[in-house]
TrEMBL record, chain A:
Species this chain originates from: Lentzea xinjiangensis
Protein name: DUF4439 domain-containing protein
Region described as Disordered: 66-92
Lineage, highest ranks first: Bacteria, Bacillati, Actinomycetota, Actinomycetes, Pseudonocardiales
Composition bias, Pro residues: 80-92
Automatic annotation (TrEMBL), chain B:
Name recorded for this polypeptide: DUF4439 domain-containing protein
Species whose genome carries this gene: Lentzea xinjiangensis
Alphabetized Gene3D superfamilies for the sequence: 1.20.1260.10
InterPro entries for this protein: DUF4439, Ferritin-like, Ferritin-like_SF
Residue ranges of domain DUF4439 in the record: 5-140
Organism lineage: Bacteria, Bacillati, Actinomycetota, Actinomycetes, Pseudonocardiales
Amino acid sequence: MLLAVAAAPLAVACTTEPPAPPPPDPLSALAAQARTDAALARTLTTVPAASEIAKARETHAALLQAEVDRERPPLSSTAPPVPTTPPTPPDPVAALRTALDGAVREASAAVASLPSHRAGLVGSVAAGCASLREVLA
Amino acid sequence: MNVDAVQTALGTEHAALWTYGMVSAFLGNQAAAVAEGVTAHRARRDTTERWLRDQGATPAPPAAAYLPPSPVSDGPSALAALVAVEQDTCAAWRGVLERTDDPALRTSALESLTAAAVRATRWRKVAGATPASITMPGVASG
């Protein structure tokens, strides 16, 4: 009887769920999107602004990833996966436009719910993508 | 804190309006784009003044004159002054984004930052600057 009472709290402790893993950092998705855009732009050598776009999106990816790693240091020094080279789309300019429109939209949407110290960074990324979009206009 | 950042942003809107007025004489071939910039900054100035009054603050008045980073005497220097004032506007609105949790103010600050970045890019394109884009609008090095 005594044993059963003593064991009861232990049983509870053992069945307690492990803490859920923290939700993914929203900046991770934005960094991945920036890397994908850069990879796409790198392949579209026929578009005059493509290398400018690739360089800018690589900078965005690096800044966003640095903030992700600062807040939650990675367990190992594994670099984020490099996106595979996408197939060349039939209309390269249209593909870049679509990618940048998406980037403006996603970054702008994220600004609303971020803590203020991150809102400036992501706001500049959104505005930077709008600037790139204007170059293609 | 919010209010100070918004007053700074209002100051750049005043400076932008003054600059657009000053350069218009040198940019006759860009009259439509100049007019568009004036309209946008005027609307932003009015919204910003309203927001400040709603907070019980007195909107800062415009200065009598502003000093562009370099003298304006022709088309290229006029374009440079517009790019500079739009970049200042970007920095001021980014400053607001970093200092507020108010969703409506954040939305408005992001719109202002983005619109100024697009206008700065447009003027850089007209000036033939490369790259025309601004990678991180609102950041001194960007």
